[in-house]
Structure formats: C-alpha cells, structure tokens
Specification:
Four copies of one chain form a homotetramer.
Chain A (H helix, E strand, L loop, with lengths): L2 E2 L1 E3 L2 E3 L4 E7 L4 E8 L2 H19 L3 H17 L1 H12 L3 H18 L2 H4 L2 E8 L2 E9 L2 E5 L7 H12 L3 E5 L6 H12 L7 E3 L4 H9 L3 E7 L2 H13 L3 E5 L4 E5 L5 H13 L9 E7 L1 H15 L20 H16 L3 E4 L18 E4 L6 H4 L6 E7 L2 H10 L2 E2 L1 E5 L3 H10 L4 E4 L15 E2 L2 E2 L6 H7 L1 E9 L16
Parallel strand pairs in A: 1-5, 8-9, 8-11, 9-10, 11-12, 13-14, 13-19, 14-17, 16-17, 19-20
Antiparallel strand pairs in A: 2-3, 4-5, 6-7, 7-23, 12-22, 15-16, 18-21
Helix pairs in contact in A: 1-8, 2-4, 2-7, 3-4, 3-7, 4-6, 10-11
C-alpha cells in the first residue's frame, strides 16, 4: 500500500512517528497510508526552508513570478491527474474538483503579478532634498496549515503568493487527503523553483505545534474550524508570529419576495449541496421573507432536488459525492435527526441514500429542512454536509438580525431585484463576504477572502491584495545626502 | 491641587478608585493629581463609545474629515498652551514640545484625506455581468494606550485616523503626564465631533485590562516598552481583538569612513540627546567603522557636546530637560555606572549636572561613552536617557551584524556618501525604519511607523497607510442581477 | 465705475487694450468694467509664473499642501462675500452660489492630500541590486481658461491641484463675471502662497492665443463650449502642450416605469432649473419609457413647477436667477420657439416671466416641453437655460440608443428601483458620468470629472486623481551602484 | 519571392496598391516584397476591428488575460523563429534579437495582470447612502504605428495592453521589416484571441493617414522620429483621437571623476554600439567631467572597442550587425564626416568596415569621436548609428546644462559612486528616463516608458501603468437608491 510522505529541501522523505489510514470515501476502504512526521522532521523542513531563504529573497520578483507563470502551465497540463487525486481521497466529483483546481490556479495567476503588487510608495522631498520610500520585504519562512475540504485550492491560496513575495514555505496539508498537496508541491520544482523554497510535511498536532513555536517560522496561515483557528491564532501570536486563521461559517441567504425565484432555486442547489456542503462558503441556511416567498421556495426546492444524484467522483453525471469520513457522516445525520427532534420539518431526507456498488461509502443525500429556528442545534452549529435549512421570517430586518446575531460572519447573500434592498443589506450586514444574487460570494483571486466575527482571526484576509501585505513586512527608508562632494569638485580623501 | 479626570461621552468625569501624583520633573515637586479610573468608569467610557458608534459610522467620510480639518486649526491655535502643558509634566523644552505637537498635527492632516484613503477596489465583470468590490468598514470601538514620552504626538498617531475611519475611541494616556491628552481630546468637540466618539480615561493596569478584555473593544493600539507591548498583544489577541503594540528600541548609527563628519556630529547631537533621549527613535549607539572614523567621531562629539545645556522647559536656550521621574534618573545613571564598571570609557559624564534653581529636578546631562561592547548591560538594554555609546568595529559587515543581532529593530541609520553602501545597508539591515544620513528616520505622516523584531507586535504599522488598514475591516461584495425585469418590460407582481 | 484688473506676480495690474462691460444680469445694467489684457500683459503674467516656478517646484509637497489647508479656512471665512460676488455678476441665487463655492472648496480639500497623491511607485530589485522608481514632477507654468457659469468652482477645479503639484498658474477667467476669480486668487497670498505662483489675467481671444502659443506654458485646462474646446485642444496640442478641454453637454435622464416618481420629479426640478440650467451637467432631457410613465411624469412635473420662483440672487426664496446676458436669453427663448414650431408641446411656458422690479433683467422662467423628438433643433443643441424637454419612447433600449447617438456624452441618469436596469445602463451608456437615481452625477472631488465623445478633448479628466496625473509628468529612475567601494574598505582617490 | 501581406479579421490578405522591397541588410539584397495596403484595405481592417469590439469588450478581463498567459508561452516556444525573422530583415545579431523579444514578452507578462490593473476606485457614502465609483472602460478600435528598429518589441509595447483592456487593434508595422509583426500577430489566434481583435496592415503614408482620420479609430500609439511623431500627434488630436507619439532622442551619459571607470566603459560599449545604435535609448554622447576623467574614458574606450565585431545576425560572436538601409548607412557616415570636418577627433573610425562575404551589406563599424562640441551637426541631431561622441566639460553643472538645453529628453545616465550627485542629477535633469550607473534606463514593463520635451507628444507614457490609463476611458458612476420598497414590504405595481 502506498505511503504518502513529505517534501523537504526538494527531496521526498518518509520519516514517520507513525502512519495513518487514508480512505477512499466512496468505498469506505483504506486506500493509502500517510506518514506522520515527528518533531525532528518538521524541524528539518523548517531548516530546509531557512537555508533556501537568503538566495530566494534576493531573486528579483520578476524571476520569482516567472516560476509561477510556468507553474500555471504545469497545473493546467496535469489537471486531470490532480482532479482524479482529489476525487480519490476527498470524494468530490471530477467537475467539482476541476472547479476547485481552477480557483486555485487563479491564485497562481495573481501571483504572476508580483512585480506590480510589491511596489512600494516613493515620496520625493518629504523635507528639503530628503526622500522617503517604503519597501515590502519578505518575512522568511512561513507556514500553511490547510483543511481536507479543498486539498488543492486552499494550499494554492497560500504558497504561490508567499513564495512570489520572497518567502520560503512549509505546508502541512490535511492528513485525510494528503496526496494532492504533495503532488502540486513537487510540480513547483519542474517550474523552476529552487529546492527548499517549498516544503511539505504531513503530520498531526505535534507537527502543528512545532510550526507554531519554531523561532524560524515568521508567519502562519491557517484554514479550518473555529476552535482550532482560535488555538492557532493565540499560540502563533504568543510566539511572536503574524497569523491569519480562518474558521467556521454559517452562511445565510435572504430570499426576498421580489426575487427571481427560479434563479434563486437554481443557485441554491449548487451552493447548498455542491461538494456535499463541505465548504466554508456553503450556503446552508435560506431565510425566506414572507409566507409566500417561503412556501414557493420550499416547493420549488423540493422539486428541483428530486433529480440530484450523489455518487462516486469519476461519474460526471453525479452532482456530489460522499462526505469525508464515517464519523463525519454520522455527525451530519445527527444534525438532521436533532432538527427533526426539535420540531423542524424534514422536507427532503438524505439520511439513507442507496448508492449501488458503494454501500460502504460515506454518503449523505441532499436534505431540505423547513421551519428551522434559531435555538436548534442544527442552526447554531456548522453542519458541513449537504443540508439546506429554511428559516421563515416576516421582514428583512428580522432576517438581517438573525445573521448579525450568529457567531460566524463568513459569507451571506440576498436574492432580490431591488437596488435599495441590496445596498442596505451589503452595508449593514456583519459578514465579510456578501453576495447580491450570488450565493457563494467567494471573492475572485484579485480580491481577498475573509470572514468577520469568529470566522477569521487576524487583521488581513487570505489571498489577493491582503496576502501581499500579510506575506511581507514594511520597511521605510528616509534618505538625505548631506554634502555636494563630487558634484562641487571637492576631494574627499578616504582614510588609508 | 488640580485633579486630572476623564472625558466620557463628551463630559468630564472625576470618578477615581484612587488618585496618583503628577510631578513637575524640573522641580521634582508634585504638581497635580490624576484620577485613577476604576473598572466601572472604563466600562462607562466603552459604553459611551459604543453608543456613539452607529451614527458616526454612517456619517460620510468627507464630513468626518472636515472635523479633522477644523481640529488642525484648533491645535495650531492652541499650540503654545499645549507645549506648555507638555513641558510642565514631561519636562521637554518648549521648542521640542512644539516639534512633537507639529508631528502630531501632521497625522491630523493625513486623516483629512480620509475620502481618498478609504477607497475600495472595484472590478467590473469578474464574470459575465458580475461585479465585485471591496469596502473598508470601521471596526467599532477602538482603544489607544499611550506612553509618557510623547503625551501629544503618540495619541495623535492613533485617534485621528481611527475616528476618521468611522470608529469611536477610548484613550488611556500615561498617568505621568495626563493633562495634554485630555486637553486635545476636548478640543475635538470644539471641532465638531459628536459626544462619545472620543473618550479619555486615566488609569492603571485595571483600566488597561478592562480595555483588553471588553467584548466591545475591537482593536487596541499601544506604544510603550517591549515587555508590556508583548503582554498587550498576546492578551488582546487572545480576546479576539486586532492589536498593534510598539515596544522598545536600541537604535544604531553606522559611521562610515567617508561620512561627512561635521554633519554626522551635528545630526547625532540632536538624535542622541534631544528630549533627554526619551524617544523610541533616539539614536543611542554610534558604530564607527575603522580606527580613524572612531577617533574623529569621539573627538568631534566631545567638542560639540561642551555647550549643550540641560534645564527647565520654558527656557528656549536649553537643549533638553529632565527625565520623567527620580526612579528613571537613577536607572539612567545606573547604566552609565555599569558601562564604566564593565570597561567602557566615559568621555563626557552627565551624571551629576548642576542646574541652578532646579536642584531637585530629575536631570541627567549629555553623556558620551566610548569603547562600548556587545556584552555590556548598557548596550543590551534600552537606556532611554541622554547617553550616546560608541562601539568600534573594523568593517561595515561587523557593524551590520551587531545591529541584526540585537533584539530590537526599530530605527537605524548610516552616515556615508556612498550610494552602494547606503543601498546595501538599507536592503539587508533587519530594522523597520532606516535612515541614510538621517539619524531619526521617523517616517512622515503619509508613510507608516513601525519597527521589526521585538520592537513591534502586529502585522500593521502605526499611522499612515497602515493605520487605515488597521482601523478598518475589509468587506467584499459580489453582485449579479439575474433577470432583466423592468428593462425588458416584464411585469413582476409583488406578493400582496 | 469699478474696473476689474489682473493679478500678476502678486500685484494687481490694470493694463488694458480696452475695457468691456460687466452686467448685473438681474437688472440688465452695466455694473463694472473689466480690463482686457493685451498680449504683453499676458506675457508678463507668464513670465511672473515662470520666475516663481523653480522655488515653488522645490518646496516640499507638505508645505505646498499647508497653503491649501489655510486657503480652505479663508474661503470659508469669506464665503458670504464670495457668494455675493457671484450673484452680482452671474445672477445665481445665494444658496446656489454657496453650493458652487462648497464644491470648489472640496477641490481645495482634496489638494491638501498632495503628499499622498504625489507618491511614485518604487520597485526593489528590478534586476539584481537594481532599483527603479517613478516620480511625478511638476510641468512648469500651466494655464486655466474658465467659463462664466461657475466663476468660483471651475477655477477651483484647476489651480489648487496644479499649484499643490508644484506648478505655477495663469488663470484667464470669463470676462463676463471676472471679480470672483480675482478675489479668490488674492486670498491665496493671505494663505501663504509666494507671489507669482498664481496669476490672473482678464482678456479675450488675444489672451487665450497668447497662452496657447507661449513656449513657457506647458499645459492648458479649459472648460467651455465644444467648438471653443476643440479649438483650444487642437491649438494647444499643435503647440506641444498637454491639454484637457471640456465642452458642451446634453444630459438625459431615463425615467423607467418602476421609478419612484415623486422622488424623480423632485430630483428633476433642481437638476433641470437650478442655476437657470446654465450648467454643463444640467439635466435637460427626460426620456420617459412607456406611455404611463411619460404621462405621470409630465403631470407631476407641471404641478411641481408651479411654485418655482425666478428672481434676484440675494432673495433666498428664489429658486433660480436670470441667465447671463440678453443675447443668451434670446437664444434660450428661440429654442423654445423652435420646439413649438417643430411640433413639440410647451406644457409650462417660461418665455415671458414678469419679475417685479427687475423688468430689464435677463430672466427666463422654468419651461417644460413634451413630445420632443430627435430631429428638433432644441434637442440637438445645448440650450443652457431653464428648459426641460421630455422625449417619449417605448423601451429602455430606445432610450439608451437616443443617448448614445447624441454627439455629447457628459452626464446622464436613470431613475429606477431595479438593480439590473441600473447596471445594464451604467455599463453600456456612452457617457462619462452616470447617475443611478442621481440626476446631477457630478463626481465628488476625490473622483474625476469628465465627459465622453465631444464633451471632452484630452486623455485625462478634470480634478481628482486624474488632475494629479494631468498636472505632473512621470520621470522613471533606474539605479544600480556598481562597486562596493567604501563598504569593502577600498580607497578610491578622487582626481585632484 | 515571398510577399508579406496583412492580417484582417483573422485572415491573411494580400491586397496591395503596390509592393515594396524588403532587404536583407547584411547582404544588401532584396529578400522579400511587402504589400502596401490601399486605403480600402486599411478601412477593412478598421471595420474588422470594429466588428470584433462589442463581444471582446464584454469578455471578462480575466478571460482576456488568459489569452495573454497563453500568448507568452507561444512567444517563448517560437523564440528562435522570431529572432531569426528579426535578424533577416533588421540585421541585429540573434542574441540582441532575443533580448528584444524578451523585453517584448515582459509586456505580455504585465498584460496578464489586467484584472488587477483595471480596478476602479469605490467610495462608500460620498453622501448619505450615496456611493460612487470609477470604471476604466475600453476605447474601441485603437491603432499602433511602429518603427523598424524593434520589429517585435515596440508592437508588443502596445497591442497586448490595448487588447487586454478590451480594445481591438490595428497595427501598421514598419514596411522595412514587416514579417515579425505579422507572425506574432498570427500567434495571438493560436493563443485563443477571437478573429478581428488583432489586425495588421502594411502600408505607407496613405495607410497612416487612413488610421489618423478614421472616425472609428479612437486612439493612436506611435513610435518613430520626432518630425513624424509631431505630425501624428497633431493630426490625431485634430481628429478627436487620443494619441501618444514617441520621437527621437539624444541620450547623454555624464561620467563623473569618481565613477568606477572600468564598469563605465563596459556599460557604454553595449549602450552605444548594441543594435548598431539604432535604438531610441542608445547612449550616443558621453560627457566627461574633468580632464582626467575624459582622458581615462577615451583611452579605455579605445582599448575596449578594439575587439568589437560587426557582422551577420546568425553569428553569435558578432557584437552588432548592419544598419537598416544603404541610405541610412550613408547618413551615419555623413555625420562622422561632418564631425571630423567641424573639428572633432575621430578616435576609432568605423566608416569603412570590411566584412568578408558581406561586402554589399549596410555595415558601419563602432566609432568613437572625441572633443565634440554643442554646435556640431553630429551633436545636435540623432545619428542612430554605432557612434559614441565624447564632450568634455569642467563641472557637473555644465554637463547638466548641456543635456537640459538639448531638444530631446528621452534617456540619460550618470556614472558616479556619490549619492548626492546621483540625487541632484535625477531631480533636476529634464529627461524622462534617468539612469544612475545604468546607461540604458529603459523602464521595466511594470513601469512606463516616456521621454520629455520633443521626445514624446502626449500626456501618458508607453506601456506599464500609463498604458492602462491610455487604453481606457474613465467612467464615474454615482448611485443612490431612493426608497426602501421591497425592504419595507411596500408593494409597487408595475404598469401593465
């Protein structure tokens, strides 16, 4: 059975304190093993990154960018291989995996603009014949810790920009689907990246803590659940590192009475059930304003959900795949159970899907729950499964209050045709990423990704312009040349 | 005896758990009392700020900026009063206090540009007929905690920008010289600021901890010593706030053999002894490269220091004043003693200055110490007094290594005529603010202030462009209008 | 009778080849004379500006900006005097003149941000140890030629930004209402501007041509009618100057069936009749989509226009004042006549207003014309009077085609509640300034003003960010220091 | 014999009013024919571009950018073919042609950043609930007219950025070496560009005038000689187009007494003789400050020039190739003759090089002329050949005056080690592109290229950030939503 190892200083390594099973979630079978790095291996990766840093830092930004130009080509050439890798370990359908990869590549494209993005500000004559300017210099070694749900995209949010800014990198991907990150890291060398600039270690909490406490790691980017994000942020901060830690979400869509309802339903289908709802931007709550909008929405959703197909990743006719583990399946089903028990109406029930030939897979079918209320466990917590809950309210103000009261503030959306409603919503909602008739308002790669409230810890958002700022530190130089030596023909003897 | 109180919701308040002496450092006498706020008073200030927030947030940026335009006028009108206030409690000479105030006003001037500074980025067609843009929205209530050494300037680094970005503010100034902050805060109301937007509380650790743990305080800016900065940063971070905490410094100047030596000496005088060296940007170590440069530097410094006058703040012929307290004087003298004991040469000795009529003042004279080495206590720690130490090295690389090895990385400078030396230095030195023949490379208000290493905790620097980013949070909106209703003449009936 | 002169090198001058009458348009009487500068006087002004240039260019931007901070204070202090001046010569009502002045002051406020706005871009390591940066240096002497309709605002669009960028300025204001420009130019000196940096000459075509052909004038900003704008642009261009020349307009509002009709009517009143329609952004054509919208609009407009009062400037109860001259009154009335003759319906007729006590004033009352069509003279040309014409169409596409077919493309607006209609309109309309429910979409001072098609000749718009670019030229410096002389301790003897 | 045709609407076309010889300048033989387009053919190209415009304009910027990503790959894949094409018609040595292509590709790389570069500015709350933002929309059809000396690079300065901004393009390359432009234009289609977005026409003045006067061409970019640039600029401007026209140059290097002389000589060799001096940034005048610097410079240059080899393009050991035509060779030789006749000293004489096997080629050898003075014809005019002239002066001020007095202001350089001299020079020299120890200070692709004085007509420089601004027009939208219809549950019936 194949074992997934580490990439350190340009070489594969298989050092392990232990190994851990990697499942195929569609079959439920163990497919591979992943090497769990001991502390020394993580330190070795950090040391490799530190050793590669001085030369990489001094490489002109345009040359660093050209590695990314080539890297984009290579990712596109290997797209089928990568999407198959994602499918085999994560379970998402190939077209969805292709979408994930494409979103990741967009961050590589943005990183190609490094020479533009790294420009500092130059001020002539801040005083008489005194000039001042800023430079954005790299930090050194930076680390990324990434989740299972986007094994290609989330790493690609981080390392292309970190690297193109002149840093070197240590990535700890999710140990549940580790192959993809390792493969795309190796491709960087084919693109011309010097050995040691990019390193990957697989591991568990020991690896994480080694990264968080190493004096040579200058910054940490994290994406995962809120409790872990909070731990990462406070630990990294207390260890003198800069940190951005992205956590959980509960993304609501307000459905207004004037919404184009067919479009709304069509949008919600993908946003709620795509990738089995295992997305931090998954649209998991629809808040219908008014009795009629709610009734129409539920009726049309029920109808639209009927043909949805859940199944194995390589079959393109499937709409979404299994969830990541049996434990997670149990948790999702438990939330549906609890909603039912607490008085909600399960309109479409995906608790017991039958997938011929994949009876042991971790499948949950698309589920629609109506009459959900604020107090229910399924409302308060992140389900991370293919479950759309409908909450009924009378007014838009009530809908907005619901959202603003939730502990998370990642994404949200309003469906309406009305300019005023859209503007009022986007202005006053306490959420970092807002959609107007866009249910998954993930910012494009040239903007930045980040939630508010307990969905993100840190000052700066992920990728885009904020990433440039996160992965560099400002240096300000003030310069005056005091005497007109050679210009006025004076001879200054050097001490001999 | 006058008691200095608080400013809460536009009203002066004198609630106190106790009062504390405020000295006139030139006479050594207790001049005033300051009210130390109990927890409840700090919470009242936070509540006042929270109450003022919604209306202030919705005030257009140009109207917020106009308060700052008017505020600049008022600060200039009251400059003499403010500089006298600073002198009476801090001790710095009036021309130095005027310089401090001017530097503070420059931040008000920068804040007047809020409409320009708050612009977000707009992207047309991120997809077909989909647009996306970013907004920089205020955070809510933010707090500033400021040190004794710049009682006007450091608060002015913070609250003008925080307020103009739409936040409301609670300032806790140093309890050693609290009058100035209170006075300039009151002036804001004369400039048209609504009550509650700006609040001041005097207090001690209880006040600080109340600010750091309040759920309604969204961000904290701090300037002070490194141990406190580290405490502030980790506590604020662990409480879910964004934080920037600026700490101590040890600022070196490299004196190259080709430097214009008369200019160098002239620059060092002000940079080392101005404001009694109680500046986080004070130039406290000169690193002379080569025997001849060192000998010349020490000889010329000794000569130039002879006429320096230390004394009371209102006498413009004085060059600098007392240090802030008797304890601090003892500490500074102790560092000189230790350097001498550890083998350095005290070339000019300021330990026992005689200031006629001010025999009980906290005065230390300008002191020059040669042959200082890396191991000495006086080298490793921040003295914060009018003491310039000279270290001798053979090469520029040695000089740079010395600087890069120090725990602090606030400011530094090189004196040279050589373009290559200057560029190499500014590129490779691990310090946030770099001067080329500029011994106090404090960035102008339209750049940002921040050290590296243990001189600053946080991602973003103080004032300037970084302050805009620190005092706002990014929201990204993605918008699509799905159907051409009214444009194509379709009639959509609203639910009735 | 008072004669209005010139301001040259800080001194008033009354050199004149002839003088010309300045009228009070409310009474129709000649109120003052204006000196018409001969060529030599204009050359003297250019020479004064040229002489002042080197010192002003080298003045740090922050010091130049501080003149503008003070200037803003002074303009506000003298606001009543300035609005009275505008009223006496232009005729607009005092509240309207106050609005004009305020809009002008906003450009002074923006100019205060010069240190931020003039920042160049700094690129470290464009090659190994090679840096490159841009600087935006002033041009030298620049000229402004401004129209009668905004005697304060349009000059304030130009000279504050030109001056704060380091240029010196020669202004030729309209000879019909020349007092205001002269007065506000003099105020600059009180604000601390050195003599010669700002100069004003009154004159006619000879003055204009002298400016356009002088080798020392580096740029020309013009606002006026399209034929003159075209002449100015081609002449200045052929003489090697940069030029921006803003011309005429025909600003349409589309009124959609879903518009909030009461708000629409309320907005149109001010946009069509304010300042007698003598604004390049006046809303002079309403395009109603659908029979019902058109009928409702005309009926409500007719009703809303009934209480409108035309009269003398100092009476605040008046809504608007006279037009600028008798000739212009005749022209406006002629357009109404022609529309009527060509088949349009004059719904509200302002051709013969009776203004008690001002029987000789140049008054035209608010006029509403329905059923206007594309072929009519009154549609094709700019009326520049208090006349709103209504065109009826069946679809939004027809309305947009009408606008896109017109030779002008200055401003336009749509009234709707529908997000999709607004977005489609703003994307596809061939007009430079677009309002969504904003009938006078004049960009705020921190954006830029400019029409498309034959409404503007030149690459860059007026005021705001574009003005910074217009009034400066880019210099790009690339720097490498080839040998590590002093750093490596090498001794380089200078030739002696 | 091969005939070079046009590319119109994605198809090759050979319409011709006549054909013209294309020479191989190394052999002097006619190698190909080029079709000279009649007016109708040019109009056809404009029409094809106009037809392709609406769809291309509406293509999202990221999709337009992806064509450029692919295009970069293709240009790199075909690099050998392209450099051979350049060599065959222009004569430059293959390594020099490769450098040209690389510089061109850098502009493609920059164009890949279109989504970032096209961002507009978004202002929330310019008034209460009113927002305003800017968009940079494409112009329509734009034209480029390019010179013989960089048959790949100068077209690549223009069309990638114009196209990525959403415009469609008509290129008229030099008819002396037309193959390269046609080939690289064809490659665009392989990269995915829709037919008609890019078009190429070969032609003469008739073609140029057709482009300059067509109402459908919205902007013209030109690079060539100053008299033609001036004609292009004034004609295009008078025809209502935006235009940037880059003309001639006379680029001086000041050699200071403290310069690293070996480095200086080494730099000057390539800068003066590379590409036979047929570059608008060629360094053609060295101004030596002081007798000793001048003597050393001339002696070392003479020595360094001895091994220079002139010859055929495919031989990599050659340093440079022939000039473009026999007429041009005669002109260059004539300038050397005239300098000699007017009193200068021809130190190294390249007038009669013997190139075995290429006796009829248009070769001129590297030439060094000392003691040149301001009055000589060879100093006043652009030679555009492999000729370096040395002027002797006593002071840096004299050297700078010489440069500032010249009609051209394209590029310049100073060789010095002294920071003050470099800063004074770069600040006060009236030249657009300045080098500090960089003899060819061509800005990198992410800065912009442009001279001052009579070296450039227009407001905006070529390529880089200025190109984005040149190839787009600003639209400013101001938006308010007047009534809270659907949000407050009001029912608005549409007219039926």
């Amino acid at each position: 059975m194949e074992t997934i190892g580490h990439l350190i200083g340009g070489q594969l390594s298989y050092q392990a304190s232990r190994t851990q099973d990697v499942f195929n979630p569609a079959t439920g079978a163990v497919a591979k093993q992943v090497a769990i790095a001991p502390k020394a291996t993580v330190e070795e990766a950090i040391a490799a990154a530190q050793a590669a840093y001085p030369a990489w830092r001094n490489t002109p930004p345009i040359k660093r960018a050209r590695v990314m130009f080539k890297y984009k080509e290579l990712l596109e050439q290997h797209a089928d291989k990568i999407t198959a890798m994602i499918g085999a370990e994560h379970g998402k359908i190939c077209h969805d995996a292709a979408g994930e990869l494409q979103r990741g590549i967009e961050n590589v494209e943005y990183a190609c603009g490094a020479p533009e993005l790294l420009k500092g500000e130059f001020s002539k004559n801040v005083g008489p014949s005194i000039d001042s300017w800023s430079e954005f210099q790299p930090l050194g070694v930076v680390a990324g810790i990434t989740p299972f749900n986007f094994p290609a995209m989330v790493p690609l949010w981080m390392f292309p920009m970190a690297i193109v800014c002149g840093n070197t990198f240590v990535l700890k991907p999710s140990e549940r689907d580790p192959s993809t990150a390792l493969f795309i890291a190796e491709l960087l060398h084919e693109a011309g990246l010097p050995a040691g600039v990019m390193n990957v270690v697989n591991g568990d909490k020991e690896a994480v803590d080694t990264l968080l406490t190493s004096k040579d790691v200058k910054a940490v980017s994290f994406v995962g659940s809120t409790p872990i994000a909070e731990y990462i942020y406070s630990t990294a901060s207390a260890n003198g590192k800069r940190c951005q830690a992205l956590g959980g979400a509960k993304n609501h869509a307000i459905v207004m009475p004037d919404a184009d309802m067919d479009n709304t339903v069509n949008q919600l289908l993908g946003a709620a059930f795509g990738s089995s709802g295992e997305r931090c931007m998954a649209l998991s709550v629809a808040v219908a304003v008014g009795q009629e909008a709610g009734d129409t929405l539920v009726a049309k959703m029920q109808e639209a959900m009927a043909p949805l197909k859940v199944g194995e990743c390589s079959d393109k006719t499937n709409d979404f795949g299994p969830v990541i583990t049996q434990e997670h399946k149990d948790k999702v089903v438990g939330f549906i159970d609890s909603a039912e028990a607490q008085g909600a109406t399960v309109v479409v029930d995906g608790r017991n899907p039958v997938i011929a030939g994949y009876e042991n897979g971790f499948f949950v079918g698309a589920t629609l729950i109506d009459n959900v209320s604020k107090e229910m466990d399924s409302y308060q917590q992140e389900i991370f499964g293919p479950v759309l809950q409908v909450v009924r309210v009378d007014t838009m103000e009530q809908a907005m209050q619901l959202i603003n009261d939730h502990e998370y503030g990642n994404g949200t959306c309003i469906f309406t045709r009305d300019g005023e409603a859209a503007r009022y919503f986007s202005d006053h909602i306490e959420v970092g990423m807002v959609g107007i008739n866009v249910p998954l308002p993930v910012p494009v790669a040239y903007h930045s990704f980040g939630g508010w409230k307990r969905s993100l810890f840190g000052d700066l958002h992920a990728y885009g312009p904020d990433a440039v700022r996160f992965y560099t530190k400002r240096k300000t130089i003030t310069q005056r040349w005091p005497s007109a030596g050679v210009r006025e023909g004076k001879s200054f003897a050097f001490p001999s």
